[in-house]
Write a structure and sequence with these properties.
By secondary structure, this protein is of the alpha+beta class. The longest helix has 37 residues. Helix 7 packs antiparallel against helix 8. 55% of the residues lie in helices and 13% in strands. It is elongated. The chain folds into two domains: 97 residues, no CATH class; 208 residues, MetI-like (MetI-like fold). A four-stranded antiparallel β-sheet has the order 1-2-3-4.
């Protein structure tokens, strides 16, 4: 009895065509393309990605988007209110209303109000104070500048703090510091987690037991007391750069354990897969098997885990700096700026000092949306 084979392609089972409409493309597409196709279907993840791109651009080029030197102070301009950009004045326009102030004779404080009779015209892509692109290339180009250079010190889009420093410019430079600490700390913890987790899962035996006991020991200690103790031990005489590197190292050395366990679990499964066994029989070295075969097969899961770890790092840095145990003045970070808002009297006079907390919330939410989207798309076959 012979079994007839189908001659019409329509009788064959075709790959699913719900992602691209091209069954053949889905059948032969590499894993990263499948992840991208599925990620694009998550609108919240795309929205989070768009917001994240804008935040990263502002963090990369804070001087370009700022209007003032973040370190310039003016005792006469303390607690100036935010000035909203106006786009219409009997036609398309670009300006802000000036703020006028007078000193209260009883409290001796400056009291400000927005004067809608005084307008400060703005111009795009003008010249202002000098800043350095990536800390190297000097530039005076700014996205937004006053049309009249004499009004340069009167534009404060998010107001000023108690020292008269521009909050918008400080927020942008704080974005650079807080984001970079989160990224570098996650990068270091990822390297440590992949190396130790991979060794533990691939070799097993006594090596696995030792690494797992170390992980259990670190995870059994509450992280907050460790951060507080290590951060408090940092000498206050250290420079901003040294403190920056120390805080990054502290955050990285304590947070690698979760990823290490995830990598170990994946390696325990992957080392028994056919493609790994075939690589061993082909005479591939252990390093090549791990780096060229096992790690790439779980790269999408690593990317998702890393994306979800970055907001945790940002919150940790903000928390430590807020308590005065992380970055310290004259450094600028979101936590340092929020430390200025610890004084309830200052917040009552200038509630805009709390705006850095909104930046933290938006950034963390965007990162979580992207991370959730990547995690859901990491296994496109299910």
């Amino acid at each position: 009895m012979s079994v007839e084979s189908p001659t019409d392609l329509s009788d064959l089972e075709k790959p699913p065509a719900d992602i691209t409409g091209q069954p053949d493309a889905v059948a032969v597409a590499p894993n990263w393309k499948l992840v991208w196709w599925r990620f694009k279907k998550n609108r919240l993840a795309l929205l989070g990605g768009a917001v994240l791109i804008v935040i990263i651009l502002m963090g990369l080029l804070p001087g370009f988007f700022s209007t003032q030197d973040p370190n310039d102070s003016n005792s006469r301009g303390s607690f100036r209110p935010p000035q909203t950009i106006q786009l219409w004045d009997n036609g398309p326009a670009l300006f802000v209303f000036d703020a006028t102030g007078s000193r209260n004779s009883r409290t001796l404080r400056m009291e400000w109000k927005i004067d809608e009779n005084r307008k400060i015209p703005l111009a795009l892509f003008g010249r202002g104070y000098e800043w350095r692109v990536f800390g190297l290339i000097p530039s005076t180009l700014h996205l937004l500048v006053p049309a009249d250079p004499k009004s340069a010190g009167n534009i404060h889009l998010l107001g000023t703090d108690r020292l008269g420093r521009d909050q918008w410019s400080r927020l942008l430079f704080g974005t650079q510091v807080s984001l970079s600490i989160g990224l570098f700390a996650v990068f270091l913890s990822t390297i440590i987690g992949i190396v130790l987790g991979g060794i533990s899962g691939y070799f097993g035996g006594i090596t696995d037991m030792v690494i797992q006991r170390v992980i259990e020991l670190l995870q059994s200690i509450p992280p907050i007391p460790i951060w507080l103790a290590l951060s408090a031990a940092l000498p206050r005489t250290w420079s901003v750069t040294t403190t920056y590197l120390a805080i990054t190292a502290i955050l990285a050395l304590i947070t690698w354990t979760t990823l290490a366990r995830e990598v170990r679990g994946r390696f325990l499964v992957l080392r028994e897969e056919d493609f790994v066994v075939a690589a061993k029989l082909a005479g591939c070295s252990q390093m090549r098997i791990v780096l060229r075969h096992m790690v790439p097969s779980m790269s999408s899961h690593i990317i998702a885990a890393v994306t979800l770890a970055i907001p945790v790092m940002i919150i940790n840095e903000t928390f430590l700096s807020f308590l005065g145990l992380g970055m310290r003045p004259p450094a600028i970070s979101w936590g340092v700026m929020l430390a200025e808002a610890q004084n309830l009297q200052s917040v009552a006079l200038a509630p805009w000092l709390l705006l850095p907390s909104l930046a933290v919330i938006i950034t963390v939410l965007a990162l979580n949306l992207v991370g959730d989207g990547l995690r859901d798309a990491a296994d496109p076959y299910h």
